[in-house]
């Protein structure tokens, strides 16, 4: 039975749908790896990390549909880096901008429950609006994360079809029923999103499908399944990995309106000036909106 809080709570899918319509269908990354810190004239330490991250918050806060900090680039500096990550997520929240923490968590039972509690909901120390998760211990192993996301109005993005060559060893493998592992993940997310209102652009549970996987989508016959899942389709690899929004539109076909291309280096290369970063974001988002509809 739903409580009054659950009934009145705005879901992640409804918030993301509104943000995509307002700002354009684009996820922009905050990826403070060593080379980018140097390119921005910053030191490769926690001070440089903080300057980089907060400048991104200044540039993107209030101007992007969703912003995706990559946790690894903060965690490599230990607890001071995690503190900067907490500050970054809080800054995005204060700006009214959705955050997607790229952590790719995946485990079982109480461990998965603890991972979810670390990142989702108002009590989470590194609180984000959504996180990425790995289903390759079985989609059902992620139920603690799905449950907490439902209870807190948060989102989950499940890895399904990644662009790295090694991913095919698992994701393209066939099950006894003939479906690929990738399709079993997509179908499971479709079941989770089954009750999504028809007028909403995207549902609460999304998928990660690489921007350069167009041939795989076609070869594996996944186009209809992606559209049917109703979830937002995070497509990393726009720009730096060679994918264009036109490539993405062709690859995803009827599911294009659900696609959330993700650009990191292609936008971050415009830094360190916040105004230049914001202009690169705006131009990329406008282009994505025109191509994806």
TrEMBL record:
Q: Which SUPFAM superfamilies match?
A: Ribulose-phoshate binding barrel (SSF51366)
**Which enzyme class?**
lyase
Coiled-coil region(s): none
Catalytic residues (UniProt): 104
Q: Which residues form the Orotidine 5'-phosphate decarboxylase domain?
A: 25-280
* Molecular-function annotations in GO: orotidine-5'-phosphate decarboxylase activity
Q: Source organism's superkingdom? A: Bacteria
**Any one GO biological process:** 'de novo' UMP biosynthetic process
Alphabetized UniProt keyword annotations:
Decarboxylase, Lyase, Pyrimidine biosynthesis
Annotated catalysed reactions = orotidine 5'-phosphate + H(+) = UMP + CO2
Q: Name one Pfam family in it.
A: OMPdecase
Metabolic or biological pathway: Pyrimidine metabolism; UMP biosynthesis via de novo pathway; UMP from orotate: step 2/2
Q: Is this entry keyworded Heme?
A: no
The EC code for this enzyme is 4.1.1.23
What residue ranges are annotated as transmembrane? none
**Key word Lyase present in the record?**
yes
- InterPro entries in the record, alphabetically? Aldolase_TIM, OMPdecase_type-2, OMPdeCOase_dom, RibuloseP-bd_barrel
| Family affiliation | Belongs to the OMP decarboxylase family. Type 2 subfamily.
**Which named protein is this?**
Orotidine 5'-phosphate decarboxylase
Q: What is the native source organism of this protein?
A: Yimella lutea
Q: What phylogenetic lineage does the species belong to?
A: Bacteria, Bacillati, Actinomycetota, Actinomycetes, Micrococcales
């Amino acid at each position: 039975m739903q409580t009054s809080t659950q009934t009145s709570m705005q879901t992640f899918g409804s918030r993301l749908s509104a943000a995509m319509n307002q700002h354009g269908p684009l996820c922009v990354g905050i990826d403070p790896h060593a080379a980018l810190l140097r390119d921005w004239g910053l030191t490769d330490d926690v001070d440089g990390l903080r300057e980089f991250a907060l400048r991104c918050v200044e540039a993107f806060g209030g101007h992007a549909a969703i912003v995706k900090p990559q946790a690894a680039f903060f965690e490599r500096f230990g607890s001071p880096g995690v503190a900067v990550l907490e500050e970054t997520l809080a800054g995005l929240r204060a700006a009214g901008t959705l955050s997607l923490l790229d952590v790719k968590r995946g485990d079982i039972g109480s461990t998965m429950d603890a991972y979810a509690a670390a990142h989702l909901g108002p009590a989470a120390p590194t609180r984000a609006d959504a996180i990425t998760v790995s289903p390759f211990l079985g989609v059902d192993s992620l139920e603690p994360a799905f449950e907490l996301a439902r209870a807190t109005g948060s989102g989950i993005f499940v890895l399904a079809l990644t662009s790295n060559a090694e991913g095919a060893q698992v994701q393209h493998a066939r099950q006894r029923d003939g479906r690929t592992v990738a399709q079993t993940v997509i179908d499971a997310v479709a079941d989770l999103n089954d009750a999504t209102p028809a007028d909403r652009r995207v549902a609460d549970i999304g998928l990660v499908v690489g921007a350069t996987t167009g041939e795989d989508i076609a070869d594996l016959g996944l186009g209809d399944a992606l559209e049917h899942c109703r979830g937002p389709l995070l497509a990393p690899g726009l720009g730096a990995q060679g994918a264009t929004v036109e490539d993405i539109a062709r690859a995803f076909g009827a599911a294009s309106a659900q696609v959330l291309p993700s650009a990191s280096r292609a936008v971050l290369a415009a830094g360190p000036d916040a105004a230049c970063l914001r202009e690169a974001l705006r131009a990329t988002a406008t282009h994505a909106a025109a191509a994806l509809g």
